[in-house]
């Protein structure tokens, strides 16, 4: 028995028909007639020496051979599509696809993109706000900015910035709550974007770092960091959040952090791309611009006493 592969078109016809369990839908997807697709599958079955489908009155079902062949052909065409897309992207230096979390996109990137567009009018930026783990080839993304611990195996990874976490509020609220102890009576916002941290960097940790064992229940809980920040900007309460997201509000005085202690954590923002792609002109241009923008801003930790949550303990 020969192990020579059958024609690619026949395998493609089978893969589509197996996925849809319909010759008509597969033919429509591949832009051929149902008769032409049926002939390709018939030739494939003759090549194999056994049927791949049970033909029913108005439907088809995979035979045992069909069920054996289907996963492999589906994976193979998916990998082929991914590889083809990746190869084509190597030629594209006119557009740059970047993914970052919703809060980082809204609070750090979006307000500054006009400056990048002015400096690099030849590059079209495409942004995808999201938090899931990226497959750079499958998702057709050039750069990812992610917050967490890593590791970033097989990727070019750079730490984007240092940061701290501490209570932030409007200046008018700060006059009402002049000490850490006074925050026990303040409306506190919980930022759920930090819940993954281990050990936690939350209100309980910050109060403990200040020698206060009591932790009041939050007035409100937010699942997104930018929503928690917006609530604090509106004057509704005090948010425990990261300086990386609040830099421009701290720099302009829209928010203040009046207390001495800031928490630090091993979690951090990273600039990620496929290893070896960091030197490509459009990626390098965005990377250099982004790091320069971050470096030009105050860190928000000036004059703070930094306490690591890893050293503080649970």
Write a structural description.
This protein is an alpha/beta fold and 314 residues long. It has three domains: 8-89, Winged helix-like DNA-binding domain superfamily/Winged helix DNA-binding domain (Arc Repressor Mutant, subunit A), CATH 1.10.10; 95-162 and 268-296, D-Maltodextrin-Binding Protein, domain 2 (3-Layer(aba) Sandwich); 165-262 and 303-312, 3-Layer(aba) Sandwich (D-Maltodextrin-Binding Protein, domain 2). Helix content is 40%, strand content 19%. The chain contains twelve helices and 13 strands. Strands 4-3-5-12-6 form a five-stranded mixed beta sheet. Helix 8 (203-209) links the parallel strand 8 and strand 9. Helix 1 (8-20) packs across helix 4 (64-89), helix 2 (23-30) packs across helix 3 and helix 5 (102-109) packs parallel to helix 10 (243-252). The termini are far apart. The model has no long low-confidence stretch (mean pLDDT 90).
Brief summary:
It contains twelve helices and 13 strands. With 314 residues, it is an alpha/beta fold.
Entry keywords:
314 residues; alpha/beta; Arc Repressor Mutant, subunit A; D-Maltodextrin-Binding Protein, domain 2; 12 helices
Give the domain tally. Answer: 3
How would you name the CATH homologous superfamily of the largest domain? Periplasmic binding protein-like II
Largest sheet: 5 strands, mixed
Using the coordinates shown, work out and report the CATH topology of the largest domain.
Answer: D-Maltodextrin-Binding Protein, domain 2
Low-confidence spans: none
Mean pLDDT: 90
Order of strands across the main sheet? 4-3-5-12-6
Derived structural class: alpha/beta
Level-2 CATH architecture of the largest domain: 3-Layer(aba) Sandwich
């Amino acid at each position: 028995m020969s192990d020579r592969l059958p024609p690619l078109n026949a395998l493609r016809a089978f893969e589509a028909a197996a996925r849809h369990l319909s010759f008509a839908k597969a033919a429509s997807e591949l832009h051929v007639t149902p008769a032409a697709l049926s002939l390709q599958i018939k030739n494939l079955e003759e090549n194999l020496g056994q049927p791949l489908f049970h033909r029913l009155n108005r439907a088809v079902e995979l035979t045992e051979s069909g069920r054996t062949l289907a996963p492999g052909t589906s994976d193979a065409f998916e990998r082929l599509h991914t590889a083809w897309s990746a190869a084509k992207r190597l030629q594209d230096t006119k557009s740059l696809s970047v993914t970052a979390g919703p809060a980082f996109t809204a609070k750090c990137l979006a307000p500054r993109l006009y400056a990048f567009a002015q400096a690099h009018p030849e590059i079209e930026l495409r942004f995808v706000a999201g938090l899931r783990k990226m497959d750079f080839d499958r998702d057709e993304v050039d750069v990812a900015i992610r917050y967490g611990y890593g590791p970033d195996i097989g990727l070019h990874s750079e730490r984007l910035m240092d940061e701290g976490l501490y209570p932030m509020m409007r200046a008018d609220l700060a006059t009402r709550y002049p000490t850490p102890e006074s925050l026990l009576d303040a409306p506190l916002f919980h930022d759920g974007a930090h819940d993954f941290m281990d050990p936690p960097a939350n209100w309980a940790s910050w109060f403990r770092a200040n020698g206060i064992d009591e932790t009041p229940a939050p007035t409100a809980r937010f699942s997104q960091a930018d929503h928690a920040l917006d609530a604090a900007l509106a004057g509704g309460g005090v948010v425990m959040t990261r300086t990386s997201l609040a830099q421009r509000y701290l720099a302009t005085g829209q928010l203040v952090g009046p207390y001495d202690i800031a928490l630090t954590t091993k979690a951090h923002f990273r600039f990620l791309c496929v290893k070896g792609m960091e030197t490509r002109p459009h990626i390098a241009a965005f990377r250099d611009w982004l790091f320069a923008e971050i470096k030009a801003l105050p860190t928000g930790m000036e004059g703070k006493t930094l306490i690591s949550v890893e050293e503080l303990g649970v």
